[in-house]
Amino acid sequence: MNPTDTISDRAKAIMESPMRADLEVYFDALENLYHPSKNPQGAFPLNMAENTLGWNLLKSKIQQIQENEIVPDWASKYGNTLGVDSFRETVAQFLSTFLIGCPIQQEHLAFSSGLTSVIDLSVFLLANEGDTAVFPAPAYPVYKNDIGAIPGIKRFDLQTHDTIDELSAGIPLDEKSLRQALKTLEESGERFKILVLTHPDNPTGAVYSDKQLTLIADWCIDHRIHLVVNEIYGCSLIDTNHPAIAGDYPAQVSFRSFGNIMAAYKSPYLHLWYSFSKDFGISGFRVGLVHSYNEAFLNAYANANLTHSVSNYTQWILQCLLEDHDFIADYLRQYQKELTACYVMVVELLKKHQIPYVPSRGSLFVWIDLSDWLEENTDIGQEALWLDIYHATGVLLTPGEGFGHRQKGHFRLVISYHIPSHLRVALQRLDDYLQKTVRTKD
Ligand SMILES: Cc1ncc(COP(=O)(O)O)c(C=O)c1O
C-alpha cells in the first residue's frame, strides 16, 4: 500500500506544501554554526527571524524569578483557555504602556501558543474555508501555511510597487490598490475576507502611517473585510535619528500602534496580533496574542483555543517578567540600541557596494536587492545566487521565494541572529564576496 493512502486528503496537501524554502539549508547551517574560537569557519544563518540580542539580560532575570518567587498553584491546573486572568491583566498593562500607548483591557485579549497558533485560529474564526486573505507583497512566506494548512484560507499577494526604492517612504498601499485587489478577486470568483498588514513589516521594515492605517481601516469596515495588523515587531524599532543613517529617512513616519485606532473605533472588523517571540527573542516560549473588540470572535476563540493554549507555567514566568516595568523599559532601551547598531553595520556594507535596500524603521531585517548579481532573472537564477553566497561565505540569507513579490533577486537579511561582534565577521565575508563577484548587470 502507498503510505500516503493512510492519511487524509488534507494531510496529503499539507505534505506537499513545505513551510518555507530554506529549511533544509538552515538545518545544514545550524550543524556548522560560527563560533569565534570553536568554529571560526562556521556558518551564519541570517535567514531565520531569531533575536539573540537581549537574551543575556532576560536569561538572568528569568533565573532570578525561578530562584526567588514561589510558583503559584494555578500554574499546575487547567485555567481560562484565553489565558489566566492575572497574566492577561499583566499583558494588558504591558501592551498599554510599551506597545500601544493607550489603555486596553484584558477582556479584549486572547493568548495561544505562539503567533502561529493565533494566526491559524484567528483566520479560522473570521473567514470560511476557501475565502481569501490579502497581504501586500512582499510578505512573510509562512503566512501561506498558517492560514492555509488547517483553516483552508487562500493567500493573495497584492503587488503595490515594482522596485524597492518605491518603499522608502513606506508601503504604497491605498484605497486604489485595495479596490483593484477586490476587483481582481471578485472577477475570479474569490472572496476577499481578511487584509493582513505587518507593522513594522516583515521583510521590509517599513511602517504604515496613522493616516494610512485609518484610511485602510475605514475602507475595510465599509467593505466588511477584517483588517488584522500584526505588530510582532512593534518594539523592535530602529533609531532613525542615528547619525549614520538619519539621511535615509526624509519622510517623518514613525511607528504608532494600530491599537490606538482600534480603541477609537471599537469595530468588530479590526484586530491586532502580537507575540513575545521577536521583541523579546523568546520564540521557544510560544506565546502569542490577538487583541480584538469583537465579542463573538473572542467567545468562539475561548471555545476553540484548548488545542492552542499556552502552558500556565510559561504564563507565570512571563507574568513575573512583565510586571517589572522598570526592567522592561531598561531591556527595551538596551535592545533597541543594539538592534540599531547591528542595522547600521549592515547598511554601511550595503552603501559601500551601492546595493539598494529599504530603509528599515523596525523589525529584525533588511530587505535588499541583489538583482545586479543574478545570472538569470528567474526563480532558478535567484536560488543559484542564494546558494552561491551561502557556499562561498557561510552566510545564509532568506531567498525572495515565498514572499510573493514578482521581482527576482531580493533577499532578506536578519540583523539580530548574532551578537554584533559575530555579525561583523559575517559582513566581512559578504564584503569579500561582493568585491570578488562580478555584477552581471555591469
Ligand atoms: C510576521 C510574523 N508573524 C508570525 C511569526 C511567527 O511568530 P511565533 O513564533 O510567535 O509563532 C513570525 C515569525 O517569524 C513573523 O515574522
Q: If you consult CATH, what is the topology of the largest domain? A: Aspartate Aminotransferase, domain 2
Largest beta sheet: strand ordering: 2-8-7-6-5-3-4
Which residue ranges are poorly predicted, with pLDDT under 50 across at least 5 consecutive positions?
A: none
Radius of gyration: 22 Å
Mind telling me the CATH superfamily name of the largest domain?
Answer: Type I PLP-dependent aspartate aminotransferase-like (Major domain)
**What small molecules does this complex bind?**
pyridoxal-5'-phosphate
As a percent range, the share of strand residues is 5-15%
Total individual domains: 2
Named at the architecture level, the CATH assignment of the largest domain is 3-Layer(aba) Sandwich
Number of strands: 12
What's the helical proportion of residues? 40-55%
InterPro entries: Aminotransferase_I/II_large, Ethylene_sulfur-biosynth, NHTrfase_class1_PyrdxlP-BS, PyrdxlP-dep_Trfase, PyrdxlP-dep_Trfase_major, PyrdxlP-dep_Trfase_small
Family: Belongs to the class-I pyridoxal-phosphate-dependent aminotransferase family.
Protein name: Aminotransferase
EC number: 2.6.1.-
